Write a sequence for this structure.
């Protein structure tokens, strides 16, 4: 996966620059998925750092953002544990208006940088092009509801 391979090279370089010893392991995606599921030391086939990507509507709010899950063994790979983040996620889900949700999101973001369940390396945007005959293309993230041939 070229995009993830590129971010791995960047992450490895950054880690080396700040003083970490890096043993970059290049592998196919299937092997990576199997290896990152192992909660053992690298010498036993486990890992310390993995670079991947999160994308789409699944990371647009705390409800579905897999990287924000911080409930230990039930969390995403890396198994971060932060009772504070989980409490804030639950509080966000209880809110019934956008203003209240935004206030909780600010608290989640502040707690994120204290507990750091993952390290964001950057953002990428996929360029999109559409035939002029298509109508109903929404601006922003491409969701294809209501698209019609014009």
């Amino acid at each position: 996966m070229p995009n993830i391979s590129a971010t791995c090279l960047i992450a490895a370089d950054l880690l080396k620059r700040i003083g970490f010893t890096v043993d970059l392991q290049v592998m196919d995606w299937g092997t990576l998925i199997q290896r990152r599921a192992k909660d053992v030391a690298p010498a036993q086939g486990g890992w310390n750092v993995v670079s991947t990507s999160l994308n789409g509507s699944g990371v647009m709010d705390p409800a579905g953002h897999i990287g924000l899950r911080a409930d230990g063994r039930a969390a995403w790979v890396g198994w971060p544990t932060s009772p504070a983040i989980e409490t804030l996620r639950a509080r966000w889900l209880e809110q019934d208006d956008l203003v209240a949700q935004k206030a909780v999101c600010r608290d989640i973001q502040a707690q994120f940088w204290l507990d750091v369940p993952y390290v964001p390396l950057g953002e990428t945007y996929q360029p999109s092009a559409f035939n002029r005959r298509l109508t109903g293309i929404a601006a922003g993230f491409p969701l294809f509801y209501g698209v019609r041939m014009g």
The longest strand covers residues 134-135.
